[in-house]
Write a structure and sequence with these properties.
This protein is an alpha/beta fold. Helix content is 37%, strand content 13%. It folds into two domains: 1-38 and 72-128 and 282-335, no CATH class; 139-263, Nucleotidyltransferase, domain 5, CATH 3.30.420. The chain is built from twelve helices and eight strands. It has a five-stranded mixed β-sheet, sandwiched between helices. Helix 1 (13-20) runs antiparallel to helix 3 (84-96) and helix 3 packs across helix 10. The chain binds zinc ion. Zinc ion binds at residues 41, 43-44, 46, 60, 62, 64. Residues 41, 43-44, 46, 60, 62, 64 line the site of zinc ion.
Length: 335
């Protein structure tokens, strides 16, 4: 198939829906993004491939098993029974919905089951997860917050460790480079040994690190220029404050409470990654943010089994809809 005839990235949701409703256009669009220099076999990287138009798949001419592959092979969409246009619109919605979007809304918008929508969204969030290639520098705000979780999903030891007033809540640490990006991690507790290694992992030595007066942050200097604002006294001391992160927490809590109602603690990092992606790309236009997600779909895989296997699995087996066939296909010889 021709890939040089590229479709411009749609500017609005309405345009995206219109453009991608044509399966050929959707495929051409995706191919141009995934293989800008021509289609390559995901198994051996060979460019000696033949397009089988009737099935919308390619066949590799090299000698190896599993010669056939589709646009979904080797991406978060692998083995998904959902059509490409549904995936593309799902990605558009997840990339651009200010307060995220619930799986119920996506299900209604795309005409799929809530379970399928939820699984799709978790895979899109995986694409939105960014590799942290560089350390943060300059002025970095560091703060931790508690996100309401459900106590029953937590290990008793973890519940106890969190202490009074925070039972059943997950602790999230955030690092924000001023005028730069935000990163978050779910941590076990607010102790020094949980927080400080993350600062050293993510922040360039010599950077200014601003925190509140929590004792766990003591000892960051002289490695860092540590500025402390005691929230018991004031929230801003000249340049020293964590207001940027406070704003991010407010956004995220709105997304959790308003849109998702509640988030299982063991999936919390996925929602955080998606929020970070939207925050870090907030200056982009919708179309560009959407293309950013699309360019990250390759080389990532999240199966329904591994997704539900992370926590309690009670009554969570895939049942009568899209996921059932997904799970069945995962044992295919070509995976
Ligand atoms: Zn090949």
């Amino acid at each position: 198939m021709e890939t040089n005839n590229t479709q411009a990235v749609p500017k609005t949701l309405v345009e995206a829906v219109k453009v991608f409703s044509d399966p050929t256009v959707a495929l051409t669009f995706m191919v141009a993004l995934r293989w800008p220099d021509g289609v390559r076999c995901p198994h051996c990287q060979s460019t000696r491939v033949r397009f089988i138009a009737t099935r919308s798949v390619w066949e590799c001419r090299e000698d190896h098993p599993c010669k056939r592959f589709s646009i979904k092979t080797g991406t978060i969409m692998e083995e998904s029974p959902l059509s490409l246009d549904k995936w593309l619109i799902g990605m558009w919605l997840e990339a651009n919905a200010k307060n995220s979007i619930s799986s119920y809304e996506i299900a209604r918008d795309l005409g799929i089951t809530q379970k399928s929508a939820w699984f799709m969204q978790q895979r899109i969030r995986l694409a939105m997860q960014k590799g942290d290639f560089f350390k943060l520098s300059g002025e970095v705000e560091v703060d931790e917050t508690f996100i309401g979780g459900r106590a029953r999903n937590m290990h008793a030891g973890r519940r106890k460790a969190k202490g009074r007033g925070t039972v059943g809540k997950a602790v999230v640490m955030g690092l924000l480079e001023r005028h730069g990006e935000v990163r978050t991690r779910v941590v076990d507790n607010t102790r020094r040994r949980s927080l400080q290694p993350l600062i050293r992992e993510h922040v360039e030595p010599g950077a200014a690190v601003y925190t509140d007066a929590l004792r766990s942050y003591a000892g960051l200097s002289p490695e860092y220029v540590h500025g402390v604002v005691d929230h018991a006294e004031r929230y801003v001391d000249g340049n020293i404050h964590t207001n940027g992160l406070e704003n991010f927490w407010a956004l995220f809590k709105r997304c959790v409470k308003g849109t998702h109602v509640s988030v299982e603690p063991f999936h919390l990092f996925r929602y955080l990654d998606a929020e970070c992606f939207r925050f870090n790309n907030r200056k982009l236009k919708d179309g560009a943010r959407f293309a950013g997600v699309l360019q990250s779909v390759g080389g990532k895989r999240l199966t329904y089994k591994s997704l539900i296997g992370e926590g309690d699995t009670e009554d969570r087996a895939a049942s009568d809809n899209g996921e059932a066939s997904v799970v069945a296909h995962e044992h295919g010889p070509c995976n």
